[in-house]
């Protein structure tokens, strides 16, 4: 209050000073304008001014007059000028002859005017008056003015008096405020106005909001105050306050107690049909005013409220437990079972959940009343309700059908008197009623407009039927569960789609080949679909490529990306590229995929992909391996020893900029080459080093087939609930015997072609393949001739007798021949076309020192 008073006085003083200064300045300016105009007009019309302007030296005549007039009139300047604005007079002689600063046009038109400008002597107010000839023509101009500095002098002289008066007013206000504040502090015990207001508002709110009656009586027994609850409990009249307690129409005992002011603790009095517990204390125990305060509680209502509060608490606890216990997984059936279990026996004696078959498979159900019993829970197992798994078609009269049709909950208080429900199955419903189930609530499992089924709450133990409050609780309970069921349904649909996509992208059958005896396992994760993949790719020259990879993440995006990478590996392997070059192309592809995803801002860019690519050649028993961030391969020798060969790791796919390196392994016949993904050796509870050591132990041992090895590894390392996909390939190596390989060195001489044909014929006869002699001679003759004519040495021919007859021509050139159609006038160009027609497959692959052109023919 004190500070507020000071601030108000200061604001008033400041406002008065500002107003006075502005008023004085306005009056002074107006006075200066009038004086300047009067002086200018007087000088312009003075005798001799007009004649002096037409004299030969106006300055000599007018300057002394102007200065004398200026000093007498108390203006700052009088300037006489010609019609061009050139000065004849000025207080400062050095300004004579220069151009006048100001507006001249109105005066040249014959009108006097005033203005405020900044002139040669500073800011000023000036008037300009024309000097006219007898015919009215303007022959000169006179200007008089006063500077702004002189205009404000009056306000400055009055300011000290005003400040002195303001200081005196401020001192008087502070003194009065101090006296008032001191008295207020003494009366309010030091509380300020804000605290006093807040305390009053709080006390008033509490007084009228509490569920206890409060009565304050004076020492004479008059009622001073009664809150709303006291008026209700005692049924007091509207004008009760101010009247004596004995005059309020209360019973004798209660009125005597309230009027006496004596101490009372939980005294019970019958007031009407209420039992009131009254507590009373006097108000003058610590020097307060005489009187008493009494509080009243309705013990009858308290007991009823206590029972309701307990029921409400149980209901809230049930809803809390439902929120925690329902939807722990993403399985529709299990979620329905959790709903049934949480409601028995706390809410109902039996609970059944009926859902549409489409919901169980992850789809949106169509409108209809055909449901399948999905979950059941009850206090006993022998209730004659439909069993779990049975398909139920509810007739139109049943409350279940009405609930599905309207999307609203339905309560049947008495099943004996529910003909619509009884008509569902006369024999079964009679058994249900005979069993003792007498009341039913049906709540639709609904999310938005989608109705997925119904939940039935059955009561048998309590004799009371379900009421409206319990119906509301059932709706809340099912509404929470419906969200979890819908989430599980959506997950089931997405999971089914992802699994279908993933299985369609993985190899269904291994291709036929003779180089490796292969066994494999693919195990998806328990939750979600991952991007692990593998493949077996036959190559030219009886070679076989093994590939295993892993796309980080789960879901449709990971599965789709895995399919794209597997397709890319198929295409790149058809080019017969070395493993390191193939991984380089795959790395560029992943980088482009990431860029496309980032450009679309889909948030689904690949966060990591690894791959291992190995090529095994049964003719040399050599295996060339390269890996991109993938776990290393394992080699199990025929004697059962296990080795992790050194293969450069390389960066994961998609990083770009770093090359990949290869390692060449020589494998004994009967060795087992093991490729896998990190899900086999690493999980949340096991470090990868521990997993690799367990893998070593599981692989140790001789005389085990690839199939047995796969099963043994999974038995030893497979976790109970795999958190990641697992891909495992075990390849037993085979060698192509020397008796199935034929090689010839060919000189760069066209005459050597005939010798090659003869050698090939003898070898085919030895292998019992005379039927292939003609076509083989023709193809090799063409290929060797091309190598001699267009290639460089050394030239070599090799034939392999595998699942097909393979012919290969080596030369030192890197130029690949191209198949074309020769015109009828061309002398050449038909050789490769002939080779393509005779061979089942043919192609070119490059080697470090040249190229190989190969053909394959099926064996007869």
Textual characterization of the structure:
The chain has 860 residues and is α+β, with helices and mostly antiparallel strands. It is built from 23 helices and 30 strands. The strands form 6 sheets. Strands 12-11-10-15-14-13 form a 6-stranded antiparallel beta sheet, sandwiched between helices. It has a 5-stranded antiparallel beta sheet with strand order 6-5-9-8-7. Strands 16-25-24-21-22 form a 5-stranded antiparallel beta sheet, covered by helices on one side. A hairpin with a 2-residue loop joins strand 27 (795-801) and strand 28 (804-811). The chain is flat, with a radius of gyration of 55 Å. The relative contact order is 0.04.
Topology:
Elements: H1 2-45, H2 49-53, H3 58-73, E1 77-81, H4 105-108, E2 113-119, E3 122-132, E4 138-147, H5 148-151, H6 153-187, H7 193-209, E5 213-218, E6 223-226, H8 228-234, H9 252-260, E7 264-271, E8 274-282, E9 291-298, H10 299-325, H11 332-343, E10 350-355, H12 357-360, E11 370-378, E12 391-393, H13 399-406, E13 410-412, H14 419-422, H15 426-435, E14 439-447, E15 450-459, H16 468-505, E16 516-523, E17 530-538, E18 544-554, H17 556-573, H18 579-600, E19 609-617, E20 622-628, E21 634-636, E22 642-643, E23 663-666, E24 672-676, H19 688-699, H20 706-717, E25 726-733, E26 741-746, H21 752-767, H22 773-790, E27 795-801, E28 804-811, H23 831-838, E29 841-847, E30 850-858
Antiparallel strand pairs: 1-4, 2-3, 3-4, 5-6, 5-9, 7-8, 8-9, 10-11, 10-15, 11-12, 13-14, 14-15, 16-25, 17-18, 18-19, 19-20, 20-23, 21-22, 21-24, 24-25, 26-27, 27-28, 28-30, 29-30
Helix pairs in contact: 1-6, 10-11, 10-16, 11-16, 16-17, 17-18, 19-20, 21-22, 22-23
Pfam family, one: sCache_3_2
Membrane topology: Multi-pass membrane protein
Keywords: ATP-binding, Cell membrane, Hydrolase, Kinase, Membrane, Nucleotide-binding, Phosphoprotein, Transferase, Transmembrane, Transmembrane helix, Two-component regulatory system
């Amino acid at each position: 209050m004190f500070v507020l008073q000071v601030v108000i006085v200061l604001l008033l003083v400041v406002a008065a000073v500002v107003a006075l200064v502005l008023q004085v300045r306005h009056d002074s300016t107006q006075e200066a304008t009038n004086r300047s105009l009067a002086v200018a007009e007087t000088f312009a019309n003075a005798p001799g001014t007009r004649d002096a302007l037409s004299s030969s030296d106006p300055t000599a005549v007018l300057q002394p007059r102007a200065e004398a007039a200026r000093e007498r009139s108390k203006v700052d300047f009088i300037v006489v000028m010609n019609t061009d604005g050139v000065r004849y007079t000025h207080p400062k002689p050095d300004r004579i002859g220069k151009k006048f600063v100001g507006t001249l046009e109105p005066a040249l038109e014959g009108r006097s005017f005033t203005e405020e400008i900044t002139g040669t002597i500073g800011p000023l107010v000036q008037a300009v008056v024309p000097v006219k000839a007898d015919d009215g023509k303007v022959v000169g101009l006179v200007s008089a003015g006063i500077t702004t500095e002189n205009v404000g002098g009056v306000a400055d002289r009055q300011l000290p008096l005003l400040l002195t008066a303001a200081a005196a007013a401020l001192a008087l206000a502070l003194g009065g405020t101090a006296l008032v504040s001191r008295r207020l502090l003494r009366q309010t015990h030091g509380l300020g106005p804000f605290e006093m207001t807040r305390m009053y508002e709080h006390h008033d709110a509490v007084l009228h909001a509490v569920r206890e009656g409060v009565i304050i009586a004076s020492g004479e027994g008059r009622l001073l105050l009664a809150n709303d609850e006291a008026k209700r409990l005692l049924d007091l009249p509207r004008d009760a306050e101010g009247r004596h307690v004995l005059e309020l129409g209360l019973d004798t005992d209660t009125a005597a107690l309230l009027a006496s002011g004596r101490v009372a603790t939980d005294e019970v009095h019958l007031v009407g049909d209420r039992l009131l517990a009254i507590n009373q204390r006097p108000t003058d125990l610590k020097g307060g005013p005489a009187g008493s305060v009494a509080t009243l509680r309705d013990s009858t209502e308290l007991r009823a409220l206590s029972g309701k509060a307990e029921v409400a608490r149980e209901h809230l606890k049930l809803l809390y437990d439902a929120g925690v216990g329902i939807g722990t997984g993403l399985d529709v059936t299990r979620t329905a079972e959790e709903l049934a279990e949480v409601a028995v026996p706390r809410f109902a004696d039996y609970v059944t959940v009926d859902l549409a078959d489409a919901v169980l498979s992850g789809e949106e159900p169509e409108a209809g009343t055909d449901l399948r019993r999905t979950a059941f829970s009850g206090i006993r197992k022998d209730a004659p309700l439909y069993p779990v798994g049975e398909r139920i078609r509810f007739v139109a009269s049943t409350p279940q059908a009405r609930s599905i049709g309207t999307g609203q909950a339905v309560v049947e208080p008495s099943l004996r008197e529910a003909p619509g429900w009884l008509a569902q199955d006369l024999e079964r419903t009679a058994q249900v009623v005979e069993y003792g189930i007498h009341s039913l609530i049906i709540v639709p499992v609904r999310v938005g407009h989608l109705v997925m089924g119904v939940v039935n709450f059955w009561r048998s133990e309590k004799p009371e039927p379900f009421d409206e409050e319990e119906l509301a609780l059932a709706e809340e309970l099912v509404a929470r569960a419906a969200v979890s069921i819908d989430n599980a349904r959506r997950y089931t649909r997405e999971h089914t789609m992802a699994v279908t996509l993933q299985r369609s992208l993985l190899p269904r059958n291994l291709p036929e080949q003779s180089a490796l005896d292969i066994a494999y396992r693919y195990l998806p994760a328990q939750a979600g679909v991952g991007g692990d993949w593998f493949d077996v790719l036959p190559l030219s020259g009886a070679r076989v490529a093994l590939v295993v990879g892993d796309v980080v993440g789960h879901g449709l995006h990971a599965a789709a990306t895995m399919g794209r990478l597997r397709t890319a590996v198929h295409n790149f392997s058809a080019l017969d590229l070395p493993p390191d070059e193939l991984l380089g192309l795959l790395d560029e592809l992943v980088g482009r995929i990431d860029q496309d995803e980032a450009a679309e801002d889909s948030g689904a860019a690949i966060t990591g992909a690894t791959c291992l690519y190995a090529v095994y050649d049964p003719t040399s028993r050599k295996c060339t391996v390269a890996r991109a961030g993938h776990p290393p391969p394992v080699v199990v020798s025929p004697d059962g020893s296990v080795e992790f060969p050194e293969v450069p790791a390389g960066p994961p796919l998609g990083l770009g900029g770093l090359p990949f390196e290869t390692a060449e392994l020589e494998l004994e016949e009967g060795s087992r080459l093991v490729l896998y993904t990190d899900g086999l050796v690493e999980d949340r509870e096991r470090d990868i080093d521990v997993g690799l050591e367990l893998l070593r132990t599981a692989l140790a041992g001789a005389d085990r087939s690839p199939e047995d090895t796969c099963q043994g590894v999974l038995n030893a390392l497979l976790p109970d609930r795999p958190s990641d996909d697992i891909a495992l390939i075990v390849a037993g190596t085979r060698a192509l015997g020397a008796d199935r390989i034929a090689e010839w060195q060919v000189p760069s001489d066209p005459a050597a072609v005939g010798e090659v044909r003869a050698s090939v014929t003898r070898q085919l006869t030895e292998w019992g393949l005379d039927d292939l002699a003609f076509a083989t001679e023709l193809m090799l003759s063409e290929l060797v001739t091309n190598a001699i004519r267009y290639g460089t040495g050394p030239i070599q021919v090799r034939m392999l007798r595998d699942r097909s007859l393979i012919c290969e021509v080596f030369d030192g050139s890197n130029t690949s021949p191209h198949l074309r159609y020769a015109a009828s006038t061309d002398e050449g160009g038909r050789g490769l076309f002939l080779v393509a027609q005779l061979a089942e497959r043919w192609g070119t692959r490059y080697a470090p020192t040249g190229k190989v052109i190969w053909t394959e023919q099926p064996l007869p």
